[in-house]
Amino acid sequence: MVDLQAVLDSIYKELTPRIGEGKVADYIPELAKIDPHQFGMAVVTVDGKIYRAGDAGVPFSIQSISKVFMLTLALGKVGEGLWKRVGREPSGSAFNSIVQLEHEHGIPRNPFINAGAIAVTDVVMAGHAPREAIGELLRFVRYLADDESVTIDEKVARSETQTGYRNFALANFMRAYKNIDHPVEHVLGVYFHQCALSMSCEQLAKAGLFLAARGSNPMTGHSVVSPKRARRINALMLTCGHYDGSGDFAYHVGLPGKSGVGGGIFAVAPGVASIAAWSPGLNKVGNSQLAAVALEMLAARTGWSVF
Ligand code: DON
């Protein structure tokens, strides 16, 4: 086994001159204020060891990475029935695109583009008031990370509520096709709060460890999903987790991964480790520029690519 701490240290050292590359998300005003000169990385191995570099302990807005946790909850609730509401194919379009929805009867291509994630949130809300659904997700993520200090950044949630015009359009469009059951404002209230989950790389890598370890968290002993379901969530992350950048991420990194416009990327080396990298500057398709480079370096230096 490679010396993982030495690998992380070398990645951090080599990337230090580049920290600040990319452009922070500015369509959510609260995220536009984030200092781009930050970089963190954490790796948690399935035998429970934690490795950190840079700002691994600094909480950031996990944004779309939350879609992995909401998807896990939705599958737990309705199982394979979820696929009546959302597809499992890459979209080849931007994360917030509306174009396919009209031709495809309001059924989003996959659970990770915004439209798909909004439909997934609607599924989780069944039988719950919005506040309860948010509470359920927060409890779930705290349980996964084994850390009660995970919070939701209300300012970020509010900021997106005020400016999330595209998400309102997507949700209204799907409601017209009867693929959203709850009032749009309620669904988006939950969705914006899930995206505003604030977590550090270390917390994120811990929370996602079950996906690297056949569905169970070896640090807590909690069984979260079946091995089959963990495999399938990983398959969706590999094919759709980076939107129209998914092919490129698979090509360069070769791991299932999920990005967020807060600059985080969560990735899984199945059977080996879960990984989180963060740097706020984004590339053209809205994925963290340096976090992707860091993951490419990690995969190359450890041989963890699934291919
Ligand atoms: O709905 C949105 O636009 C944001 N809350 C999340 C988008 C996102 O993270 C896309 N990922 N790179």
UniProtKB/TrEMBL annotation:
InterPro entries found in the cross-reference section: Beta-lactam/transpept-like, Glutaminase
EC code(s) of this entry: 3.5.1.2
GO BP of this protein: glutamate biosynthetic process; L-glutamine catabolic process
UniProt superkingdom: Bacteria
SUPFAM superfamilies named in the record: beta-lactamase/transpeptidase-like (SSF56601)
The keyword Hydrolase is annotated on this UniProt entry: yes
Catalytic activity of the protein: L-glutamine + H2O = L-glutamate + NH4(+)
Keyword annotations: Acetylation, Hydrolase
Family: Belongs to the glutaminase family.
Record-given protein name: Glutaminase
Organism: Rhizobium gallicum bv. gallicum R602sp
Organismal lineage: Bacteria, Pseudomonadati, Pseudomonadota, Alphaproteobacteria, Hyphomicrobiales
